């Protein structure tokens, strides 16, 4: 097996078994180079010539089964520790669900319905949602800044604002940090993740009510691996 195909399973994150499900050829090629198991999203149900889901509930159950969750129980073995489902813009996998956002809401609702708090699955599942926000080419616009408004209005207070984890690499200040958030990231793990005051999945709500502000994209996978007990803690 080529070295670059063994990065995740052999050298990163304590042998974490990870898979990406996508129809995007570029992402699938990139995932293979990183050592992910790459699965064809259209072939999730064994037929690559038809859309993968006739029911959102079926898709939710299938995704959970890849993690070792079946019929509301935790099985003795699991195929993967981490499963990343990629849905590109316009890739509505169920024509009956409406637009992309409605489909995603329905899928998340189906997963949360199966993994209710207090159930075997609910106590073991880490659910992460990452969505792009705005255009990267326009990301320098002030409206996409994650800096607190009070520090923008009064720069003198910035001296009292400690360096955040995302601005550091080890003990050194990073010089490549962008002060805008082209992606929104939320996590839910029952009785483990900290809960902030965010009530809606929007940039404005994240900026005003989110507790963690931001994390570099190159540390996102590490943070998820930490929640799965596959990596040490990053930052405060």
UniProtKB/TrEMBL annotation:
It comes from Gossypium raimondii (Peruvian cotton). It comes from the Eukaryota. This is Uncharacterized protein. The lineage of its organism: Eukaryota, Viridiplantae, Streptophyta, Embryophyta, Tracheophyta.
């Amino acid at each position: 097996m080529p070295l670059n195909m063994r990065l995740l399973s052999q050298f990163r994150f304590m042998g974490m078994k990870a898979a990406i499900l996508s129809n995007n050829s570029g992402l699938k090629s990139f995932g293979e180079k990183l050592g992910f198991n790459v699965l064809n999203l259209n072939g999730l149900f064994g037929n690559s010539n038809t859309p993968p889901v006739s029911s959102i509930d079926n898709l939710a159950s299938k995704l959970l089964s890849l993690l070792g969750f079946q019929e509301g129980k935790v099985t003795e073995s699991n195929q993967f520790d981490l499963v990343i489902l990629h849905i590109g813009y316009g890739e509505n996998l169920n024509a009956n669900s409406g637009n992309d956002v409605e489909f995603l809401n329905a899928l998340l609702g189906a997963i949360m319905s199966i993994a209710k708090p207090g159930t075997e699955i609910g106590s073991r599942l880490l659910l992460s949602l990452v969505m792009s926000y705005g255009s990267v080419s326009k990301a320098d616009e002030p409206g996409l800044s994650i800096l607190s408004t009070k520090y923008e209005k009064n720069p003198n207070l910035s001296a009292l604002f400690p360096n955040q984890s995302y601005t550091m690499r080890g003990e050194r200040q990073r010089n490549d940090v962008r002060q805008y958030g082209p992606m929104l990231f939320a996590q839910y793990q029952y009785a483990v993740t900290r809960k902030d005051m965010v009530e809606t999945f929007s940039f404005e709500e994240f900026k005003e009510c989110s507790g963690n502000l931001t994390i570099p994209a190159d540390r996102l996978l590490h943070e998820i691996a930490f929640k799965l007990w596959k990596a040490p803690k990053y930052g405060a």
